[in-house]
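Q: Okay, next protein. This is tRNA(Met) cytidine acetyltransferase TmcA from Pyrodictium delaneyi. I've checked the sequence twice, so it should be correct. Can you predict the 3D structure?
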Amino acid sequence: MAASIPAMLRNWLDELRATGYRGLVVLHSVSPVYAGGLLARIFSDVYGDVLCLAPREAREGLRSECSRLESPGAIDRLLGTENSSVVLVVPQLLRPNLLAAAAETVRGGGVVALAVPPLGEWQPGGRDSIGAYRRYLVNRLGAARALFWADYDAGILYRQALPRERASPPPGPEGYRPRSPVHRRLLEAAATLDQARALDEIVLHLRRRGRSVFVTGDRGRGKSGLLGLVAAYLAASHMVGFVPVTAPSPGSVQGFFRVLDMALERLGVRHWAIERGGFVAGVAGPWFHFRYHTPDRVEPGAFTIIDEAAAVGPMRLRRLASRSPRLLAATTIHGYEGSGRVLAKMIEAILPEPRLVVGLEHPVRYPPGDPLEEWLYETFMLRAEAPRPPSWPPESLDAVELDRLRLADDYATLAQVYGILVQAHYRNEPDDLALILDAPHHRLYALLADGTPVAVVDASLESGDTAYEARIMPDLLAQASPRAMEARGMRVVRIAVHPELQRRGLGSKLLSYVEEQARSMGLDWLGAVFGQPDVLGFWRRNGFHVVYVSPLPSKATGEHNIAVAKPLTSLGYEVVYTAARDMLRKLLLAGHSLYRGLTAEAYAAVLEGSPELAQQPLAVLTEEQKHRLRLVLEGRLDVEAVLDVLWLLLVNHILSSGGLRILEEKDRWIAAARVLQGKTMSDIAAGLRVPIQEARERLRHLLERLSKDHAAG
Ligand SMILES: CC(=O)SCCNC(=O)CCNC(=O)[C@H](O)C(C)(C)COP(=O)(O)OP(=O)(O)OC[C@H]1O[C@@H](n2cnc3c(N)ncnc32)[C@H](O)[C@@H]1OP(=O)(O)O
């Protein structure tokens, strides 16, 4: 009986290839490594090549069966490659990111296969899983349209499904008539008609002095390839010299460089590739040089290219956009590195005018309507969007904890919950869904309006000593609070309110329910870590204090992480207040060194504090300082002559009142940036878009105000 599974699989593959679509194979066995080898052998026969991804201990047994063998951790090496078949040998954790990335590389007619333990033992969520992800995945397999699913040892075929129709390939570039002076040979190098048309439009835009181009599309639409074609045009037309290229990882620009290389070859332009660590890091010619830099290192050029802009983060993008005369950017709208229309709109707004936005629709490697792509998108909810909001006001509004095992069986509700969570954040990936469903230390809460989720919290239990619990907040709190490791708490990993229902108290309502739950569990604190200082107002309004600000920007986003916490028990009070008071001092005293990189707005926002953080001032003014201060107040000296005095007055004011809350917003920014961060007046004036004279007057006003308070005190 067992012998028939391979024979059935071969037949299935023949039929699948005839349809032109791609399929998914799941083969269970007590030895996933053996099953993986078997699959690799069959795929080698059928397709002539097979890429295997297997953990180290399994690789020896597979070496002779696979054309290429990589570690499952090497997602970066997958990006930009193209394969007929991929076998993933996954005895334990099946990371959705890996499955999505592997499938992305497979051509029409090909397969992605999983060699996994027997169905009863299969735990794709890994050792500590609560089993909800496994349940979800098995449910979802039932919905796949091109699936071969069997147990090799038992000789059982669970399911065999094939698309009924034959695929029709997307139209090619042949015969397209360009409007721009783009070379015919370059147009014909386009993978689809869609790409050729976009290339033509972009060339026209750049020829007419367009400043920026933004290419959008789902994964696998040839965005990076299109950037490569445009780059080849720019090089061949002598329109560029040195061009910095950035994207989240070197792996993610391999497709770009491959197409650039191919296109320059076609155009007969002399060029060479520059390799680094097994990756192409640049393509250069006699008068041009396209060079990859990581997002944290890239400096803007006369022309800058940014791939996967969503994953580079809006902060960095803004910096690059403000300093590059011309930009070419692309991003995934739905996919596994950053997602969401909200984000696309945000990026669009950052790019300078005149700007051209082009969308790519047709997949490059496989036919439109491919069942494997459909399955992956639906399973990992890569097109997740917030649900339609219920009519408002609702009849009922209830905060609940969601039962994740039940959610695994309720696709519609899970999609609504996930849709709300992902639309609010710009870095989402398939792994997030598995984490939310399965991580043992996570809890999921929602606010239901007439039964429809309108606000969602994903939270994680954290403490200093448990193996299962994460330790992000405890580690941060422990930098200042000696007893932080004794305390237990809950970190709000994400909170999001339906985009059409924000600022109506829903976020606060759900947060107070989460707080109630945390109190009933006897937890000491509730906390959160995030990158956007603009939501600090929300946390403060709900009684949270800043307990940590990262001096270094995050490599991934360019933002400085901010941690906030609220105490729930007496131990919590001790830990949170100790950390918050210490943080306030550190922010003040190291403002000009550690925290100089923060924008004035962000720095002033974290300094806002609250009266509970009030503490002893530093020192009194000397007689000489008082004398200088008098001269300035009488108008006989410039404010800059008493910056030291102003520093002391401001620091003492903040320490004794627990934060910088006086004055209007712009005054606070200028005070923080000039006096505490030591930025120059001209940088501040430029950054805040105020005339330098106004900035000086505001500083003088601050001095008058503080010295009056000082005299009164
Ligand atoms: C760990 C993390 O996830 S941090 C990231 C938080 N999430 C996001 O930024 C996603 C997008 N935003 C949202 O989903 C929501 O707006 C949330 C979760 C930030 C806030 O929920 P909401 O229901 O909109 O806020 P709510 O109405 O309860 O706000 C109460 C008060 O907080 C303050 N506040 C709320 N949102 C903000 C904000 N974005 N910026 C500054 N202050 C805010 C205001 O003072 C507000 O009172 P007001 O409206 O009377 O002025």
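A: Here is a summary of the prediction. Residues 551 and 595 are 5 Å apart (CA to CA). Residues 623-712 form one domain.
Q: Noted. On to the next one.
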